[in-house]
Amino acid sequence: MTNNFLTTIRSLKLIEGYKAAQIYPFSSGASTSGSSGDGGGGGGAKPPPPPPPRSVSLMSASMCYPHAPSTSGSDSTLPCGLPSAAALEPALDACLRPVDHVSALAASYRRMSSAEAAGDDLCDVYLEQHALFRAIGDARLLRRALRAARVQACDPHRRVVLAAWLRYERREDEFDPMPPPLDPCTPTTPLLECPRSAVFARESSGVDPVCPCRRPPPPPPTPRPPRFRRNSSNTFGAGDEDDEEEEEEAETNDLWFIIGQEEVACERSCIAALAKPLNTLLYGGFAEARRDHIDFSRDGISPRGMRAVAAYSRNGRLDDFPPDTMLELLAFANKFCCEGLKVACDNKLASMVRGVDEALSLIDLGLEEAAHLLVATCLQAFLRELPKSLSNPEVARLLCSPEGRELLDAAGNASFALYYFLSYVAMEEDMRSNTTVMLLERLWECAEQPWHKQLALHQLGCVMLERGEFKDAQGHVYSLAGVARAKYKCGHKYMAYKLMNRVVGDYDPAGWMYQERSVYCVGKEKMADLRTATELDPTLTYPYKYRAAALLEEDKFEAALEEIDKVLSFRMVLDCLELRAWFYLAAGDFEAAVQDVRAILTLDPTYMMFHGKMHGEQLIELLRGHVQHWDMADCWMQLYDRWSGVDDIGSLAVVQQMLAREPGNSSLRFRQSLLLLRLNCQKAAMRSLRLARNSSIHEHERLVYEGWILYDTGHREEALEKAEQSIRLQRSFEAFFLKAYALGDSSLDVESALSVVQLLEQANSCASDNLRKGQAYNNMGSIYVDCDLLDEATECYSIALSIKHTRAHQGLARVHYLKNRKKAAFDEMSSLLKIAKNSASAYEKRSEYAERDVAKSDLNMATLLDPTRTYPYRYRAAVLMDENKEDQAIGELSQALAFKPDLQLLHLRAAFFDSMGDNTSTLRDCEAALCMDPTHGDTLDLYSRASTKADQSQS
């Protein structure tokens, strides 16, 4: 059937059309003249297809396929023909990728240390680290750098920006409905994200230990003692309030300001004390100094505003005046240089901003009067509503235009940090939009440090390439790879090749260099560059995709699938899943194709396939006649089999199919989040968990899902409280499991650990399915092992295996090993590998129970399946070091560090260098490791010893 189907496709000349078509353009107006792919130049002019939606942006998905006509039938299973290797291009990262990660990290740590020693501003240093960590792609490092920058921010503006950025990165953790942007923070809100703390905290660096939202309210002001006066009956008594005010005015008012037809009574000395200009006016050589009535009709203040000035001058505080009166006071303070009054008005107006509407009504006046805190608070309201607020024309005009930046700068609220954040959000939303371009232009205008300019130009160049504005891109791209790509897009392929050839010759080799040069090569030279790129950096996906597509063009379906599976074995990449689904379609395996499409829709429900031409749901509908139809009972059986078979992608696809039938099933959403966590898709998992919480119709279930959200965001005690509330409402498996999991996530004594086991037993006594009960028995076994109760652990693991919880093999292997049955442990892990054939972690674990040669073989397989796992590199390096093969040991670690900077790898290589007497390299690796974790004790000790040696050698 497959051969006949492909013969039909070839008879339509779709493959030839793909090979001849130009690369999918960046925009409908992009110039494609002179551009030719590796497969040959384009023929006649074709109208370019419309640009794909942002979910398949070239920078985000790096998949661009040429346009081809659909096959003849509307029910064709290949609506866009076959993929072409020549149509693929590697993505240009919108972050700066250093040639040598380790040296860049070490230099960053040195800059941080010197700035700390000199008392310089550390906020910008940590922002630079954030830019550096983006190339590494570790979310924990990125958040740590942002948190450190927020702690070191000394001014309200940068505190506002960084607090909003931290909240933006954590937006998936919030419960629905989302709280208003400037609402007081809740007990689970991180202190660094508090909106009031960002604006009103003290000026020194660091963080106020008590959030302003959680401080006790100030005590009520002490009432003034009553004034006693002689009354009409010739006795003394306390006068009423009106009498008191009349007497006070009679005794203290010695100056009246005439505004229109009204007179405002004031005290001359109090008004003069507000500012030096007023003191000079009232006590200097001016005529007003000799008058007790002064005309203020032309000074732009109303009688009500002047009465507010008089009140402030007497008691030094602002009462609850309405906003328009406060704005009058602010204008008065600016006109007469009343600094104290201006600060008080600025603070009071800033505290009145509650959301975007208030911010829009006050921002213009704040900018006009240079009210720094008011502008910062209005800006905070906009930033905390990103990306939605950028669609507001007034907000976009202020944030994106050159004039808006100048106004913000005049009010002390324009900075590189602000536009770094704004451009980051805009690029995530839509790389091609005019908003993104304008924000990056503002970023360039705010650039002061060299790294500021490099980053701004590089990102602007990437956006220009995305938009198809190649000539402009060439002028703005910092990265040499970006310059080469711009030349290539302009038709200067040989110039691009020469440029990348020079880069390869001038710098230490890196995978991205060979990957980029391969774009401008053909034939064997191209394949050689791709092979070298994979050797230097096996995490680059383009070489796998190109080789897989090339194999498909040669009708080598199995080899093509095997090649693309190499990526999917360690990383869930949407365009790789799409490519594999395309391969399955070409091979006629429609069940497998639909499975991958469902996995794609789970990760990104908006994803458009086939260069943005078709939504995944449409493709599934198109293939309905070619796949089996399951009812919910069948789906549960399929889920059980695939979950037990450690087929996470298959399980994900089944759950997605079930949710298509029952979109409001919160239990299925929760299982979906568990599977996504297994696949290391953190954001998608949190989204599914939130959907589970929002779709739950039972309060006890909702409390459990809220508890998991709190637990995953670091609020363990609050998660425990949610679990207990749920249990009080209704005993359920998930509530007991959450409570046990949260309690077990700490160092426990035997008694406490056994109480966790009791909770898991209570969980298993509640209604649930074997998938979840198997997990509970597996966790019980782990706790028994920690308590050295190996027989009880064996029983729990055996029960888990009896209900097909396959991962219990690993726990049982550990029990065998602790009982000195190493061979039995090895066999147990082998049983797991018979089911989970492509599990790198299983091979890694089995190596612990194997002899050295077999262990090395298992670890080599683990590296082949998942090159990002660091333990195999450390093990092989340690073995080589034991064999006195020092250079080979260093080379083993350097191979991994070239594409994955890792704390443990850096520390181990630093220790190796120290044992070899290479103090310079020891210091560099220690500095790089401390850049990633400044508190790592072993590295700090090693760095201290190496620094002492360096000082001694210099002296």
Strand order of the largest sheet: 4-3-5
The count of DSSP E runs of length 2 or more, i.e. the number of strands, is 6
- What about the largest sheet? 3 strands, mixed
The portion of residues forming beta strands comes to under 5%
What distance separates the N and C termini?
80 Å
How many helices? The count is 51
Overall structural class, as computed from helix and strand content, comes to mainly alpha
Shape: globular
Task: Give me the Rg, rounded.
Answer: 34 Å
Mean pLDDT: 85
Give the fraction of residues assigned to helices: 55-70%
Question: What this model shows, in words?
Answer:
With 955 residues, this protein is an all-alpha fold. Helix content is 64%, strand content 2%. The protein has 51 helices and 6 strands. It has a 3-stranded mixed beta sheet. A two-stranded antiparallel sheet has the order 1-2. β3 (255-259) and β4 (262-266) form a beta hairpin. α21 packs antiparallel against α22 (470-476) and α34 (648-661) runs antiparallel to α35. It is globular. It starts with a helix and ends with a helix. Residues 1-75 and 224-251 have low confidence and may be disordered.
Summarize the SSE layout with pairings.
Blueprint: H1 2-11, H2 14-20, H3 58-61, H4 101-118, H5 123-136, H6 139-152, H7 156-169, H8 195-200, E1 228-230, E2 236-238, H9 241-252, E3 255-259, E4 262-266, H10 268-272, H11 276-283, E5 293-295, H12 303-315, H13 323-335, H14 339-352, H15 356-368, H16 372-383, H17 393-400, H18 402-410, H19 416-429, H20 434-446, H21 450-467, H22 470-476, H23 480-489, H24 493-506, H25 511-518, H26 523-536, H27 542-553, H28 557-568, H29 574-587, H30 590-603, H31 609-612, E6 614-615, H32 616-622, H33 632-644, H34 648-661, H35 666-678, H36 682-695, H37 699-712, H38 716-729, H39 733-744, H40 750-764, H41 770-786, H42 790-802, H43 808-818, H44 822-835, H45 840-847, H46 852-865, H47 871-882, H48 886-897, H49 903-916, H50 919-932, H51 937-954
Parallel strand pairs: 3-5
Antiparallel strand pairs: 1-2, 3-4
Helix pairs in contact: 4-5, 4-50, 5-6, 6-7, 7-16, 12-13, 13-14, 14-16, 15-16, 17-18, 19-20, 20-21, 21-22, 21-23, 22-23, 23-24, 24-25, 25-26, 26-27, 27-28, 28-29, 29-30, 30-32, 30-34, 33-34, 34-35, 35-36, 36-37, 37-38, 37-39, 38-39, 39-40, 40-41, 41-42, 41-43, 42-43, 43-44, 44-45, 45-46, 46-47, ...
